[in-house]
Amino acid sequence: MSTQHRIPPSHLHQFVQAIWLHAGSSAQEAQLVAEHLVAANLAGHDSHGVGMIPSYMNSLAQGFLQLNQHPTVEKDAGAVLTLHANNGFGQVAAYEAMQLGIERAAKLGIAAVGLHHSHHIGRIGHWAEQCAAAGFVSFHFVNVMGDPMVAPYNGSDRRFGTNPFCAIFPRRNTKPLLLDFATSGISFGKTRVAWNKEQQVAPGYLIDHQGKPTTEPGVMHQAPYGSLMPFGLHKGYALATMCEIFGGALSGGRTTHDETLVTSHDAIFNCMTTIIVDPEAFDAPAMQEEAESFLDWVKQSPQSGNEAIQVPGEWEEHNRVARYRDGIPLDNNSWQQICAAALQAGMPQEELAAFRALTQ
Ligand SMILES: NC(=O)c1ccc[n+]([C@@H]2O[C@H](COP(=O)([O-])OP(=O)(O)OC[C@H]3O[C@@H](n4cnc5c(N)ncnc54)[C@H](O)[C@@H]3O)[C@@H](O)[C@H]2O)c1
Fold first, then answer.
1. Residue nearest atom 30 in ligand 1 by C-alpha distance
2. What residue stretch is flagged as signal peptide (predicted)?
3. Which of 23, 58, 223, 329 is packed most tightly, with the most Cβ within 10 A?
4. Are 278 and 105 in contact (CB under 8 A)?
């Protein structure tokens, strides 16, 4: 079993920022990438946190990820914007896309933003939280261009990505209601975390290269490759399909098929269609009270096991409280891979040693 480190969030943020500055990112880009990745770990989604850095560094070295890019407006139809992300950091492209969409929704009551050809946009909840912080409801359909990992319902090999769906509803005086998940039973990143920790995954999530059920996360990381399964049988598969079409086709981007298959698993490119709505534009003065009445009602259900009933988004909030207090847990394999990526970025040995000394 791999040993675990606990790293204070502010320290990890500085380290990640320094890595990308050494790699050649502008100060703003390094800051946005560090903020996003550390926030994903704080939210409990280690699959989309700082553990992505080695993959991003490989993508940069292989010429896929382009530093210091900004999305270009390809079409401005008023309430609908189409943006080309120019293969730049998703942490910059999605941030700027949400800012543009929020400005439009503030003027018009609703806006849709198609963002395509963006390098990995990470944890989608982060972009929904940006919309909710400005007071808006949002819906996000995302595909992963040309990097199939998930088998269709009744299929036996990988045909599409882990295509996340996300939606957020801001609440008065408390954290927003947040739905944010991959349409595969587990995200690809969770198989990486399990693999790094030398753990099996629960049954029902993976099949091997012959289509047989397995709990071995290595089938997603070394040939011959297996596949993830969609969540919820035909329902998850159907939602994944809509994410592929809305995310990949409607946004002006590409879907996954034989012409778009990538040659490297580090070349993770997302397309996302986002709909941002001003809740004040509805004639619904009791909206907040109605929402709270429902959430209270649901929580009054007698508990069936040891775990309390939560509403979507609460899981992330509990993790934030615990991880701000106790530090961010990181297994040793992931930590060593991130340190190797820091050297790859050009961080001097002495600077790396100073960061390492603070995390033992
Ligand atoms: N960029 C990409 O290409 C990509 C692809 C796939 C996934 N992702 C991201 O990966 C992350 C992890 O996805 P995942 O599928 O592993 O998520 P997950 O299975 O951990 O589900 C998370 C969702 O379930 C809710 N939740 C958790 N426990 C709950 C409970 N007891 N009661 C009610 N709701 C509960 C959470 O609040 C959240 O909305 C997400 O942030 C997603 O956006 C990104």
1. 310
2. none
3. 23
4. yes
Give φ, ψ of 297 to 5 degrees.
-60, -45
CB neighbours of residue 302 within 10 Å:
5
Percent of the chain with pLDDT over 90: 94
Alpha-carbon distance values, 36 to 16, 26, 94, 205, 278 (Å): 10, 15, 11, 27, 24
Question: N- to C-terminal Cα distance for the chain?
Answer: 18
For ligand 1, atom 19, which residue shows the shortest CA distance?
Answer: 181
Q: What is the pLDDT of residues 174-195, one digit of tens each?
A: 999 999 999 999 988 889 889 9
CATH 1.10.1530.10 given to domain 1-61+328-360: yes
Taking the C-alpha atoms of residue 252 and residue 304, their distance in angstroms, rounded to an integer, is 46
Q: How far is CA 146 from the centre of its chain?
A: 17
Asked: is 63-185+229-301+308-326 a CATH 3.30.1370.60 domain? The reply is yes
Closest approach atom of ligand 1 to CA 314: 37
Of the candidates 335, 355, 316, the residue with the CA atom closest to the CA atom of residue 4: 335
Q: How far apart are CA 219 and CA 152, in angstroms?
A: 17
Calculate the CA 65 to chain-centre distance: 16
Nearest CA to ligand 1 atom 28: 315
Q: How many whole angstroms separate alpha carbon 120 and alpha carbon 228?
A: 19
In the reported structure, the alpha carbon of residue 180 is separated from the centroid of ligand 1 by a whole-number distance in angstroms of 5
Is any atom of ligand 1 closer than 6 Å to the C-beta of 39?
Answer: no
Q: From atom 13 of ligand 1, which residue's Cα is the shortest distance away?
A: 181
CA 217 to ligand 1 center in whole angstroms: 18
Output the CA–CA distances (angstroms, integers) from residue 136 to 53, 62, 218, in the order listed: 31, 38, 40
Rounded to the nearest whole angstrom, what is the distance from the C-alpha of residue 24 to the centroid of ligand 1?
Answer: 31
- Is there a contact between 189 and 50 (Cβ–Cβ < 8 Å)? no
- Domain residue extents for the chain: 1-61+328-360, 63-185+229-301+308-326
Number of other residues whose CB lies within 10 A of the CB of residue 287: 15
Q: Map tokens 């969770």 to a residue.
A: 190
